[in-house]
Amino acid sequence: MEEITKLINDTDWAVRSKRNRINFIKDLKEKLSPKSKGLEFLKNFQLVSDYLLDRYTNVNTRKNKILDINSILKLLNDTKTIKKYQMLTDTLINESEIHRGENIEKEERKISHELVLDIPETVADNIKYIYEKVFLSKAQIDELRTNSAKFKYLKMLTEYVVMCLYCLQPPVRTDWCTVLLDHPQDKENWLDSRKLLMTIHWNAFKNVKSFGRHSFELSSELSNILHNYIKVLKYIIKDPKLLIYQIHNGDYKEFSREVFSSYFSKLCLKYLDRRLSINDFRRSYENYIIKDPHYNSLTTNQKKELHDRLLHSMAVAHTDYLRVPST
Known about the structure:
single chain; mainly alpha; hpI Integrase, Chain A; two-stranded antiparallel sheet
């Protein structure tokens, strides 16, 4: 494992990608063949593929895990094994194209943009019901006394902030769970909160290699919310590195993208009484901007800027996020 860890760390991959792939391959070895030499167990194609197909129900997640394995095998120059995994990857890509799943607009998954805009206030009212206000002062947080009580408040505040991030501006994929807080990085997503209007720097996301890095200034409304939230975050969690954390039982830890996606769906169930995904919100936003009467009068560059905020192209917006099921 030391050899592959060094090879991964020497790549130009994003820091988080390196860490995730190292943890993934270590976990895979531990679960499937802890006593095997190095990564020899990966040549047992049937063992690994059966485990991945059983462990991950989402087609895209399966595909991405196998692509992770292939990227590691490329570092080892194991072309023979790569070909085996590539066959499964191609099958999953085809399956994904046939069942675009989340990107196909289904009636039960529709949500209007107007309803999306109302969600943060619904979450805020839930917080006010218990604490009378959304953002407590340091003195008021101290009055909560126990560490568990403080984290309970932070957990509710995190729900509010997450919904603000996905409702009050164009919703990106699961990338907000990776955002570093005021830690400038060339290959990581990070938030610059040093000015009144904050700037989000997107350097590490699904299609960054083809789409390129982007930076956007946040609105005054969202910047103000985040400034207040960060004050609370820094008071409860000393020297936080990330903007948002998974809060549970008086403690906190980083989100994985998979866990964050599930977390978001559970928030929708809690506040909307139905499970929706981040892609449902992305689709809602795309419908909102494209069907706006003024959209057709915009220049191509102006349209591109609107879609860029979702970290995908105009072509993807029109072909993927606005498709309807065939009849």
